[in-house]
Amino acid sequence: MAASNHLLTSLPCSSCNSRSRACCEPAVSRRNFLASGAAAAITPLAAASQNAVRQAPIADPLKIQPVLTYEIPTRREATSYRPWGGLLTEQDAAAERERIGAELKALSKAGGFQFLPLVSVQTPEQAGRIAREGHDAVLMYAASGGVKTLEALVTRDKWSLMFLRHRSGPVYLWYEIAHPRFLRKTVDEFGQPGMTVSDVVVDSQSDLAGKLRGLYGLKNTLGKRMVAIGGPSGWGVGGKLAPDHAKNDWKFDLQTVSYDELGERIQKARADERRVKRCDALADDYLAQKEVSLETPRAFVRKAFLLTDVFRDLLDEAQTDALTVNQCMGTIMKVSETTACLPLSILNDEGYMAFCESDFVVIPSGVLLHYISGKPVFLNDPTHPHHGVVTLAHCTAPRKMDGRRAEPVRVLTHFESDYGAAPKVEMSKGQVITNLIPDFGNRNWTGFEGEIIDNPFMPICRSQIDVTIKGDTDTLLEEMKGFHWMTSYGSYLRETQYALSKIGVGMKILA
Known about the structure:
Layout: E1 62-69, H1 90-108, E2 113-115, E3 119-121, H2 124-131, E4 137-142, H3 147-153, E5 159-164, H4 174-183, E6 200-202, H5 205-221, E7 225-229, H6 242-248, E8 253-257, H7 259-270, H8 273-288, E9 292-294, H9 298-318, E10 322-325, H10 331-336, H11 341-349, E11 353-356, H12 363-373, E12 378-382, E13 389-394, E14 409-414, E15 419-425, E16 432-437, E17 444-454, E18 463-470, H13 473-479, E19 485-489, H14 493-501, E20 506-509
Parallel strand pairs: 1-2, 1-3, 1-4, 4-5, 5-6, 7-8, 7-10, 9-14, 10-11, 17-20
Antiparallel strand pairs: 12-13, 12-19, 13-18, 14-15, 16-17, 16-19, 17-18
Helix pairs in contact: 2-3, 5-12, 5-14, 8-9, 9-11
């Protein structure tokens, strides 16, 4: 699936409160808002800066063409003339179109989906014309009709889904024969290009929404342009080819910014007295928020807000909403006189995607999970799972993990350097979370649900959570690959697994 044109949206900043001047600075929509993340988790800004137009977070809706396939049988004496199914008259078909319309209207409320007007087809020629029109995915309501009509709707450059009715309405013919006749072509082996059993949904609007959400996430992930400060990289020996996988498998457009260039930009920003005062005021507003405690010199936080502003310049110029920082445990500290931890946290809270370490083994999973969940995501270091528990930690956690409410935070130094400003976010105990574990080769991921049980304060990366494993610990130990994990609030394993299947990547979900 080719990368689509970007649609810019405006999302909330982490400094929003009644006293803040910061709400308006980071992002103003350049075009109309059409789609936000899952369940509209991230909401638009209340106001916009009068001084500058910033690159806003990007989200393209998934454009879906719903198609009802059916044929009205003609009675013939003393022979079988009608197939299985409840659409036997044009009145039946009209009622079914009304039913489908109501269901699509309900689905569209989740955000991220743009349903084109429902069309009905009865011949392969009609289906072929529809298949060639402009949409990302075709959604077949296969009530009846010939196999050639269904086959004509499936093309290699678009995604295809089939919806079947068992009890949600009049039973469909293809509820009987989708597997043996359409997918297997009346033999034992699967033979339908572009579709598998995972593309067929029976009755469940929830299942259908999950698959569409996965495709929405994939559409917005493929072709993502990302600023890579210090260049793209990958963790460990196994991650050496990660930037290549990002470019070849995910079609990422990686834009390198050298540390020499970043240093020049920071020096120029420091020489701008008005800009420094504005960023200092933003830092003070952040620290004045409820449930924010300062446990590092204020100067580090002020410099972090200036660095955040420079990062926004880079996003503006690249016309993207995604950024990563290489050598963030050393090089950037000397250049910025603070750490990148807090700036990355702030940008994620504002709806951008901002990752430390430039590890392209895991970063694609963060982009995909961000779009599927509609929430900020947490790139983290895992530990050794034991007795049904694992600790996840890093120094760049977002505060708005649910996309709306800022969690309490202690602003400390970055742990390993004891320098700069890094958030210790107190994530919500009892929260169900999705954990993705990409492998170095981007071929077989692992995923599991967990539940946050504690926010300890061990001498490790500042934001840290103890998580119960909803699955077998020994299996997790056997299946762990790569290094970094990606975590979000909520449950999105099935959507992720479905999206990955479309680019040939497997994912084992721990039961």
